[in-house]
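# step 3/5: fold
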Amino acid sequence: MELAYPPFETKDEQGNPTGVSVDFAKAFGEHVGREVVIENISWDGLIPAVQTQQVDFVVSSMTIKEERLEKVDFSKPYAKALLAMLVKKDSDIQSMKDFDQPGRSIAVKIGSSGHMYAQNNLQSAEIIALPDESACVTEVTQGKADGFIYDQLTIYRNNKEHPDTTRAIFIPFQDVEYWGVAVKKGNEELLNQMNGFIDEFYADGGFDRITEKYLKEEKEVFDELGFEWFFSDLNEQ
């Protein structure tokens, strides 16, 4: 995983891996009776790491996409998310349609769902692809980009951190996306183990526990705003 997306994948004050995905991965290790070692790999290196067997699986808030399915297999969905936009406080942008105009620019994290969305849907706006989330936010706060596309939780957290310079737009502009665990193509044994674990983790309240541990405040806000929560029961997917 890439330890650059708190509170899902990050480091504690001592530099140790921590977060939702870390707990999830370690719980899977307990499920199969194996120790899980967390490898911190840059986002664009995650899928190659699975393909070359540098790692056995990737759990890093990764959206299941057709482009990625050509390279790796994914588990059943364990979470879902929607994209949102962070714009300048005084911007007149109210929707994605407003964004996609000549002279507009939008920051995206390289390889993210926001990046893919922008490439596939924006015709007129300039796309500024940057290596990490913080760089994208800085582009907006400093007025170098008109906005930043990322998931709702990240946009909410960054707007809360920069209330004087940014505004969040949560109006849905794409379908719900699903997160899965990536494994090497053809590794049916590991895939079946992971799918069984996801079912069990839902059933025994595992996602409720990690929500309480890492995302209690955010869950309350999502409920108030009427947003679907990440860890709805997706066993029917």
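# step 4/5: annotate
The chain has ten helices and twelve strands.
# step 5/5: archive (pending)
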